[in-house]
Write a structure and sequence with these properties.
It is a single chain. This protein is α+β, with helices and mostly antiparallel strands. The chain has a single domain, classed as Ubiquitin-like (UB roll) (Roll). The protein is about 20% helix and about 30% strand. The protein is built from 2 helices and 4 strands, in the order E-E-E-E-H-H. A hairpin with a 6-residue loop joins strand 3 and strand 4. The longest helix is centred in the C-terminal third of the chain and has 12 residues. It is extended, with a radius of gyration of 16 Å.
Length: about 90
């Protein structure tokens, strides 16, 4: 059986152990009317050391998306709720 890139184990750049995995997550930048949500951001997650990190290539692409946000983004209403500890 062939593994997808997300299932293929990697070596963690932080601790050097095998077992890191590629996951896709949503990341938010800014706030209020300047809030930008970027979906499907590739994040490397290591179960050995507990670190999650982005590659330099991913960080460059995020900066490019943020710089050209009007070209890449679409307006979508999202519900917002505040957490209240009682």
């Amino acid at each position: 059986m062939t593994m997808t890139p997300e299932e293929e184990p990697m070596t963690c750049d932080n601790c050097g152990k095998d077992g890191a995995r590629l996951r896709h997550m949503s990341r938010m930048y800014g706030k209020g009317k300047d809030l930008l949500l970027i979906e499907a951001v590739p994040v490397i997650d290591c179960p050995s050391c507990g670190e999650s990190y982005l590659t330099a290539e991913t960080m460059h692409e995020l900066e490019r998306i943020k710089l050209h946000r009007r070209s890449f983004s679409v307006q979508r209403p999202i519900p917002v709720a505040a957490f209240s500890a009682t």
